[in-house]
Design brief:
- The chain is of the alpha+beta class.
- It has a domain of about 150 residues.
- The chain is about 15% helix and about 25% strand.
- The strands form 2 sheets. Strands 3, 4, 5, 6, 7, 8, 9, 10 and 11 form a 9-stranded mixed β-sheet that branches. Strands 1-2 form a two-stranded antiparallel ribbon.
């Protein structure tokens, strides 16, 4: 529906091209810079000469989801490390998948625009937290609003992200003793390529989309 995907080389993920009527335009104008999809060639690693993740202890693992409530984390306060993606949540397998932009209209309301924040925990694990992005006119539910606020706290402090009840607000509980600056990753798209390997929906015959259409059983 006026939306095109393209690839910037073998294996690269599709890049979104803006369509004013699409899901990807419901964000506030200032937040649309990294919308929906990406190519591994579009964002270069942050320039940190001489810094290697192995040398400074980042672990070779990238998790997707909200951090466990007993894990202390920091959020990376860098504009290149929190972009927005069209995503689906597979309730059967309990995992998030990235959705190609040309499929957004077909999928309909099951597609959600989510902001993938980059966090690092005390053990050096990288966690990509997919929080719902603000909707039209900044509308957002209380749980998600509290999540974005907790991220702001995590920019400068080690915090535990504790939800009050099943869908209650998220509270950021700060560490009283740990103040060491974490080692930050240097390539956002490399993290996403690793975290979402095998979980990018690019065709309408993907098993999850067929299941949502009722063509195959759960």
């Amino acid at each position: 529906m006026g939306r095109k995907g393209k690839r910037d080389g073998a294996g690269a993920l599709p890049v979104v091209e803006h369509n004013p009527s699409s899901l990807v335009e419901v964000m506030p104008a200032g937040a649309q810079r990294g919308v929906a999809m990406f190519s591994a060639n579009r964002l270069r690693p942050v320039d940190r000469p001489g810094v290697s993740t192995a040398e400074f202890g980042l672990r070779d693992v990238v998790l997707v989801g909200k951090p466990a409530p007993q894990d202390f984390v920091r959020a990376y306060n860098h504009p290149d490390f929190a972009h927005d993606f069209a995503m689906l949540y597979d309730t059967v397998n309990g995992e998030f998948l990235i959705l190609a932009p040309e499929l957004i209209d077909e999928v309909g309301p099951d597609a959600k625009l989510r902001r993938l924040y980059t966090l690092v925990d005390w053990t050096g694990r990288v966690i990509l937290w997919p929080l719902l992005a603000p909707g039209a006119a900044g509308r957002i539910d209380p749980y998600t609003r509290s999540g974005h606020a907790a991220i702001v706290r995590a920019y400068n402090s080690w915090v535990r992200l504790v939800a009050v009840g099943e869908r209650g607000p998220i509270i950021a509980r700060e560490s009283t003793t740990h103040h060491i600056e974490p080692v930050w990753p240097t390539d956002y798209y490399a993290l996403i390529e690793k975290a979402f390997a095998g979980r990018v929906i690019t065709t309408a015959d993907h098993p999850l989309l067929r299941r949502l259409r009722g063509e195959i059983p759960v």
